[in-house]
Design goal:
alpha+beta; four-stranded antiparallel sheet; two-stranded antiparallel ribbon; 15 helices; FluG domain-containing protein; DUF3435
Length: 508
């Protein structure tokens, strides 16, 4: 389970493919939701006797059963339980009956799958009974029955729970029918591992293998990203007690090899010192030569025929892909050298019996502070980072309710990716032990004021009406009018309907 399931709609990490993979047509960003006998159909025009068929082999709301169960221990409130039916997992074709997983509440919101699913259901307005749009009404219920099932709306049963983001004229939005692709999920996992400074690549196999180890060995730490044996196999071979001792538990835990001090990318200054990649040099010369030839023949690159421009754009894409591959390879080498240097410095410090500065040691133990663009994400981070286990029942419930409410609010906002500063070249200047790399704060919070009715010549009429964006991004002004028009054409007009009147996006 990963604590990133409830992200803001249309995040910057969304995949670039904006077309539906199944060939369905979009109307204003909305896709056809149901099919009958393989043909698209609209739910409003369907007959009552028509059978609604699933379109995707993904986790849908009909696969999740949410229960309100009376606390057998006589608690102050009912407890939530969840059944998840996996119909399309690996080997499902050879197995007639699907696999059913049972979940119960976890005191920590970050590790509670019910909280994440409930936040998504509230955001999608999927609960069948109107009025349960707040988590407090579910977490503070007292049912008269031993168990009460929470039914979903009939229109949401075939809808995937985790869906991809699509681009519309007004901005990014969650698709109504298209599920999140596995490639996107794998990209998110890899990015989390990179941000944590993990030596190994994070994949879904780590969680699947860790789940099996947790069931077999009963060691809770194996439920994390852990593909290592949880027992001391050496002692087991020597017929000693093979129980999981302290060092074994430490090495099977995910955090022991995660070092956030390792930079995420190689600094530009260090990359410039390396000899250029021959393939990059070859492609760069081809791009430069073709651009020069197009200007000589047609005057401007945009004036060239479409086939010539497509060939030129493909050549530029190949150049960017090759540059990225070379940069990623050098980043791996640079990160490994950083880890090696950190461990060598620590061993040399112990060997020379140097006295560690207490203040420096405390700074190294501090978590890096991150200031997000969205206030909702900052508040949610504080709640999810609260790992206190000694709270009473009311405080634990209030913390969980607050987490679900913030996840619902965050799902209605969109965070704009900003250029990340180059990584500090501290490796070439000295030790990088004295602290974590500085994380520059994002856009400061701006007091939201009324959007002016008359906009400036360099303001985007589409962005001012997108309420998911921060206020500073909605009313921003471009440096030139031409830059604003390029932004409108590339990011908004290309997703507008080609026929029919345009819709004014101004909030007033």
């Amino acid at each position: 389970m990963t604590p990133v399931t409830c992200d803001s709609d249309g995040t910057a990490g969304t995949e670039s493919d904006d077309k539906n993979s199944n060939g369905t047509t979009n109307q204003g960003g909305q896709s056809q939701q149901f099919t009958q006998a393989g043909d698209p159909m609209d739910l409003d025009g369907a007959e009552e006797d028509d059978e609604i068929v699933r379109k995707h082999k993904a986790l849908c709301y009909e696969d999740i059963v949410l229960w309100l169960v009376q606390d057998p221990n006589g608690g102050d409130r009912d407890v939530l339980a969840m059944e998840v039916v996996f119909r399309h997992h690996k080997g499902a074709k050879n197995k007639r009956k699907p696999t059913v997983f049972l979940f119960r509440e976890n005191p920590l919101p970050i590790l509670c799958p019910i909280s994440h699913i409930l936040a998504r259901a509230i955001r999608d307005d999927a609960i069948g009974v109107e009025g349960f749009n707040k988590p407090s009404r579910l977490f503070s219920s007292h049912t008269r029955r031993s168990a009460t099932r929470v039914y979903w709306k009939s229109s949401m049963l075939k809808t995937p729970v985790f869906r991809r983001s699509i681009r519309t004229a007004s901005g990014w939005a969650k698709s109504k029918t298209e599920p999140m692709k596995y490639s996107t999920y794998a990209f998110y996992l890899d990015r989390i591992g990179t941000d944590l400074g993990s030596e190994e690549k994070w994949t879904s196999y780590c969680f699947r293998h860790g789940h099996a180890n947790a069931q077999v060995t009963g060691c809770p730490q194996n439920a994390y990203q852990n593909s290592r044996e949880g027992f001391n196999t050496h002692d087991a071979f020597l017929e000693r007690d093979p129980s999981a001792d302290g060092p074994t538990r430490a090495f099977t835990h995910v955090s022991i090899k995660c070092n956030p001090e390792v930079p995420k990318q190689i600094p530009k200054a260090e990359l410039a010192k390396l000899p250029p990649d021959p393939e990059v040099v070859r492609l760069a010369k081809q791009v430069e030569a073709m651009a020069r030839r197009m200007r000589q023949d047609y005057g401007f690159i945009k004036a060239a025929p479409e086939t010539v421009r497509e060939e030129y754009q493909q050549l530029r894409k190949d150049l960017r892909s090759t540059e990225k591959a070379f940069r990623d390879d050098m980043t791996k080498v640079y990160q490994e050298e950083c880890r090696r240097r950190l461990h060598h410095e620590e061993l040399q410090r112990r060997l020379s019996e140097m006295t560690v500065d207490p203040e420096l040691d405390e700074r190294a133990k501090l978590e890096p502070s991150v200031q997000h663009q969205l206030e909702e994400r900052t508040k949610l981070q504080a709640v999810l980072s609260d790992f206190r286990q000694d709270l009473d029942t009311k405080a634990t419930t209030d913390r969980k309710i607050r987490a679900v409410e913030l996840m619902v609010l965050l799902a209605s906002r969109r965070e704009v990716r900003r250029p990340t500063p180059s990584t500090s070249n501290s490796l070439s200047q000295g030790s990088i032990r004295p602290g974590f790399p500085d994380i520059t704060p994002a856009v400061p919070n701006v007091k939201v004021e009324e959007v002016p009715l008359v906009l400036g010549e360099t303001q985007c009429i589409y962005c001012v009406g997108e309420e998911k964006l921060p206020y500073s991004r909605r009313i921003r002004s471009f440096g030139r009018k031409s830059h604003m028009w390029d932004h409108v054409e590339n990011l908004h007009l290309r997703y507008e309907r080609k026929v029919g009147p345009f819709t004014c996006r101004h909030p007033r």
